[in-house]
Amino acid sequence: MSKAAIDINNLPYADGDFFAFEQLLSTKEQDRLAEVREFLAREVKPIAVDCWNRADFPMDLIPKLAEIDLVSPVRRQGYSNLFAGILHAEATRADTSIATFMGVHDGLFTGSIEALASQEQQDAWLPDIYSLKKIGAFGLTEPLGGSDVAGGTRTTARREGGNWILNGAKRWIGNATFSDWVVIYARDVDDNQVKGFLVDTATEGYSARKIENKISLRTVQNADITLENVIVPDFFKLANANSFRDTNKVLKVTRLAVAWQAVGQQLAAFDVARRYAVERSQFGRPIASFQLVQNQLVQILGNAVSSMGMMVRLSQLEDAGQAKDEQSALAKAFTTARMRESVALGRSILGGNGIVTDFEMAKVFSDAEAIYSYEGTHEINTLVTGRAITGISAIV
Fold first, then answer.
1. C-alpha count within 13 angstroms, C-beta hemisphere, residue 353
2. With 70 as the cut, is the pLDDT of residue 6 above it?
């Protein structure tokens, strides 16, 4: 078969949904997904590699994201968790950094407000959050605390009259260099419980410094946050965030979302690798005609489909109010492990061209490393699942 005989714009299974999981969505949800896909193809894909190379966030994209109205598809717009998951996978497929920006603002930040703020607080804050007039960030991880932050939060909160005084530091906080608000989780020195606070980033004593020299999610503006006697009025203490158990209500859902990102990352790897395989000729024919290349492509697809199947069922359980923490933990561990294998296979198919962003796979490959680590490392999520099936904790 000659290269000219291949129609790269009309390949079989163009959407990569080999088992037709999207048919489980309602007609309304399928139409909405098609609308968002068109938006991502038009507004995000063309700029993604350049922004990644420059480690620069496209601020002019925010009004366009506001117009397409992606924030809180389940709680506010009434869509299913299955739709929300597939939507997040599609955003990741287009660009992991923009999907992560939305995951921080929508999942972690907005999710904290929706789950842990009082109705009065929600009424005051959510309209601007939903419309992206106020951009949010989520401050939990610390310079010396990642996996152990549940019991080792070093950032402190001290009640003083009608205010709270926050001191400490947070690290790896996405969106924090330009966010208007950030939810900060801090340990109350009086009762030793982790509590949540909405902090205006213009408040005196708050500072955020961009983390440089990343090899993953370069478009995302991660920051080191410092809080030095930051004064937070009592109204901005999240009413229902009074222990880390409350914080975990947010993390259970966002861990599910990150597992969907792992699906999207695998579909991105499949897209790039398959297109390259049918376009690239060696020995006088497309490399897609070689058995070993087809084997690698099928392995990527199999990983993506198995990951998606797990996520479809977990999303259905979430819709039914039956999903458990350990199920989200297993999903995050499993899908990201498959993702790591998939992007490595994709990079291999591209050979030397797989290590330069000109061919996109290098970006897909590198971004996978962040997904593998955030929202709980593979090891911690494995042990959370192990504890659930044995009744014995092996974490410490």
1. 11
2. no
